[in-house]
What does this fold into?
Amino acid sequence: MTSPRTLVFAAVAVLLLALPLLPVPEFWITQLNLIGLYAIVALGLVLLTGVGGLTSFGQAAFVGVGAYSTAVLATKLALSPWLGLLVGVVLTVAIALVLAAITLRMSGHYLPLATIAWGLSLSYTMANVEGLGRYDGLLGIPSLEVFGISLHEGRKVYVLIWLVALLAALATLRLLDSRPGRAIRALKGGAAMAEAMGISTYRYKVVIFVYAAVLAAISGWLFAHYQRTVNPTPFGLNRGIEYLFMAVLGGVGQVWGAFVGAGAVKLIEDQLQVWLPALTGTQGNYEVIVFGVLIVLVLKYAPDGLWPAINRLVERWLPPPRRRKDWADAPRLAERARPHAGEVLLKVQALRKEFGGLVAVNDVSFELRAGEIMGLIGPNGAGKSTTFNLLTGALPLTSGSAEFAGHTIGGLPAREIARLGVSRTFQHVKLLPEMTVLENVALGAYQRGASGVLRAMLRLDREEERSFFAEAERQLVRIGMGAQLHELAGNLPLGPQRLMEIARALCTDPVLLLLDEPAAGLRHQEKQALAAVLRQLKAEGITILLVEHDMDFVMGLTDRIVVMEFGTKLIEGTPAEVQASPAVRAAYLGTEH
It folds into this structure.
């Protein structure tokens, strides 16, 4: 059943597309054409910067690539503008892939600086190549034709511009609500967790970088045939900064914020060009100064942009619908074969990790057999979590080896280890607070699916999505969180957040489950319920290695315990043997008495 909010948005889209048929001023159409073109570029930045956390000042250069590609083919070779679109997109993808390989492994302020550098380089190339007309650009670009209808007027090309913009928005929304979309949403602040779920974060950085570049190139193609001329000015660094400001002002990370930001920036810019000369009595690009001040004010006082405020007003009359629960009869995801109980599943030999002169893990060795629950305990700073990070690929080991089910995992990246059947939780909870509990847990099933970006945009992934959500609900019910499916994960207390992390780890269908302080923050009854779940998992063939400070919880649950102190293995034995050990009492109490 279609929600009222969807119907209203559909009605607004139809009205927007039908606007040229109404007796509105030509100036309105011109303004809306430019807003639509800007919004297409800003949509790419919503995904790239707002969702993915990759700041780019160079999108205007990709607009130029799309514009100049079709301009050269149409004016110098008299080829079809539609061929110009194809060539522009292919060339943009090639350039974006090269730039991604060079820049996307950078972090911090280096990535934005790199985008400024290649944006300036592409802009300079457009302005200084003779074949591109240098600063004068190219004239006489033909208008577009669709089914023999010439789109030479603003009212006629309007429908195409806004159809492309709305379809790009729909495709982006569909992408974000999918298997690859959840992976993309994990890039900003959740990369370590995403890798532990089997996701290649670098791959998805490249995907959204190319996606944003392609949207910019399509906008450039439309711009060239709308204006009928191109020159380097609209594709410089200033415009690249404007595009980023549109995304930030509208609500970076919000799809509809791209349209709000594009509209606001365009209208403010036009008004400033009228008001400022009147106020100052001189001509000049003073609006650049005002925009700089506005950017600072927005970042300071409205970092979430305009769309969240607008959305809150909309929600008073049109509350967002809950995800329709249509997965009751969804097919079960495929499950791994379990090893036979008693087989050596994990073999750790002389595991060592050094941070400069500090030895955090000092030649630790132990074996874990299939079907066991092993505890890894020790005082704070003993090296337990570092050992977990070595076994799951979050940290590279200095020396030693680790084997899982016959595979050498020491030195493998976290996603490769996860794909072998090792899953984990974290000492400090890692979740995506703006996603629901159900979506966070469904992220764990990523490696059990196959749908990609194109299938998500075309909505060909719905059957697989139903299976993901059915599995996520099953794991949440198992740990006692079945009533909290649609809660925002960021609104949960610490205890339920930890339980949600366990459900997400279980969604990966693990053979070995590593739990880092799973009972921290839980009440007594919740701990008892968790212990019952872990015993049930053991009965189902899942092997568990856990770090925990609650000794009653550990002693009543585990089959064997490894005690660590100052990075070294102190003792290994049954809970009774560990409790009776004077060395363990000395480690915890500082005395043997």
